[in-house]
Design the sequence.
């Protein structure tokens, strides 16, 4: 019985990890937190398939670097906020206007959720960079 539960758990982690990796890869070229989703997917895949554990550290390093670069200047922050506002606004339009291709609240909600995720990750990245900057002068001084 315990063996079948473990098999189901590994299959679920592997499936969820694969979906996150695929969505993350798609978001590498679309607006969204692509590299962070790839990282989350690789972590889940590594829990399901221990042989993939060696890929976690390099992907984590790249994802954290990308998160830090996304808030490295006021212009990048402003650009990310504008993209987030566009996503939320487009989601409302897709939900309300019936003449828009693929209109409906399913499409609109996914755009709104994407915008909210973008805002959450932007805040998380900004806080992480600010905390690192606060620690840096005290560590060297």
Sequence:
């Amino acid at each position: 019985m315990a063996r079948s539960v473990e098999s189901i758990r590994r299959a679920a982690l592997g499936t969820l990890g694969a979906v996150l990796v695929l969505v993350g890869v798609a978001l590498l070229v679309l607006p969204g937190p692509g590299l962070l989703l790839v990282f989350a997917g690789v972590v889940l895949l590594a829990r399901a398939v221990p042989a993939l554990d060696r890929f976690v550290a390099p992907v984590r390093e790249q994802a954290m670097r990308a998160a830090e670069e996304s808030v490295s200047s006021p212009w990048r922050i402003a650009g990310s906020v504008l993209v987030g506002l566009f996503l939320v606004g487009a989601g409302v339009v897709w939900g309300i206007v019936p003449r828009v291709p693929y209109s409906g609240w399913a499409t609109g909600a996914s755009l709104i959720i994407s915008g909210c995720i973008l805002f959450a990750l932007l805040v998380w990245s900004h806080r992480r960079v600010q905390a690192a900057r606060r620690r840096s002068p005290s560590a060297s001084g």
Observations:
- DSSP finds five helices and no strands in the chain.
